[in-house]
Amino acid sequence: MPAALSLGSLPLANALQDTSHTDVNTYLLTVHRCMVCGLVQLAHSAPPSEMFSKYLYATSASKTMIDHFDKYAESLVKSLSHSQDKIVDIGSNDGTLLKAFHKYGMRNLIGVEPATNLAEATQNRDIKVISRFFDGDSVELIGRESAKLVTANNVVSHVPDLDGFIGHVAKLLAADGTFVFEMPWIVDWLRRGSFDIIYHEHLSYFGFRPLSIALARHGLTITGLTHFSDIHGGSWRGMAVKVGHEPGLWSGSYNKLEEIFDIEFRELNKQSLVDFEERMHKIRDALVSMLIELKSKGKIIVGYGAPAKATILLNYCRIDNSIIDFLSDSTPVKQGKYVPGVDIPIVSPEKFHEAKPDYAIMFAWNYEREILEKEQSWISNGGKFIVPFPEPHIVP
Ligand code: DWN
């Protein structure tokens, strides 16, 4: 398939460096769209072991996600009948969701997490974590058809073998089990123009058409859909069960799925990715011009948050430490490191407040509400955020 759009060769988004001035590996980032099922995906993947064996992203780094997964667990526990019903969270990260299930009384909790640093952080008496990539052996280890609930949040975009992954989920699910997944929606991404979420961890950028085909191939059907506009820039939570075990009132979701297919058919076509690339260039040029102008006026400019997407935005726009003094981040393990490719140091939130910068690029734009609430004092003293999407603008 012809490349729909390309960001060139960029570093791995979470490959933060321990020292400055280090040469980092870069990998081509080109996005393609399958002309059969419409799946948008990367043409080249980087080695999963380089990306996921030691992982710096922690779900609990933002209150928004802690609260989100607390409500997630509370709502799902209502559909379970026993505290010993087995729940398996694939890509359990730092256990934020599993700990929420534990809080609501569940006691048979298993995480599957390849990053050893995160797996170790999660273990407790009622939560067992298998530190490996989810595969057929994981299913045998956990027990075929033993899980009442299998969850996978912000995971399906990361798996190289989607068909194999869904097949293993189907084998793990009990006959009356439910698969619950969350994923950013490609239509939200196209509408916002947020190209910074294109990186090597994200192999696929989902619409529901390709995902439904993959689920159907393994006897799973979608019976529940909820959209969250403020989660990772716009995400869906889908629920799927084994065909023949649909709940009575699932037709509502069936109609919603039809609507989603129509939206995707209209907004996700060959031209939309070509238009997206043009928009990418415009956003890059507008952001760089804004920063150069502010710098020429002697303004102090920093970054707020050091999410994976910051690496992409900074490297693609070639914004380095000559423009931005540092990025602050609330994740302890990120502090003291450097953003790969642009040599910008990552510091603690305390350093952000000490520096009293004039402007901060909100790299963690998906938490705008939480961040604006948190930084009211800096804002009231004249601090301003630069939010990159849908086009670079200053808040407040
Ligand atoms: O898909 C993925 C999503 C789920 O998480 C993974 N591939 C990698 C990761 O992406 P990300 O790093 O872009 O995720 P976040 O959650 O957007 O990262 C936010 C970053 O900002 C964290 O490092 C924490 C930091 N932060 C902060 O410093 N101050 C966040 C908030 C809310 C804050 O107030």
Structure description:
With 396 residues, the chain is of the alpha/beta class. It folds into two domains: 228 residues, Rossmann fold; 114 residues, 3-Layer(aba) Sandwich (Rossmann fold). It is built from 14 helices and 18 strands. A seven-stranded mixed β-sheet has the order 6-5-4-7-8-11-10, sandwiched between helices. β5, α4 and β6 form a beta-alpha-beta unit. α2 crosses α3. The longest helix has 27 residues. The protein is globular. The mean pLDDT is 94. The chain binds ligand DWN.
Strand content: 15-25%
Q: Can you list the ligands bound to this structure? A: ligand DWN
What would you report as the Rg, rounded to the nearest angstrom?
Answer: 21 Å
Helix content: 25-40%
Strand order of the largest sheet: 6-5-4-7-8-11-10
Structural descriptors:
about 400 residues, alpha/beta, Rossmann fold, seven-stranded mixed sheet, binds ligand DWN
Task: Describe, in short, the structure shown.
The chain is of the alpha/beta class and 396 residues long. The chain has 14 helices and 18 strands.
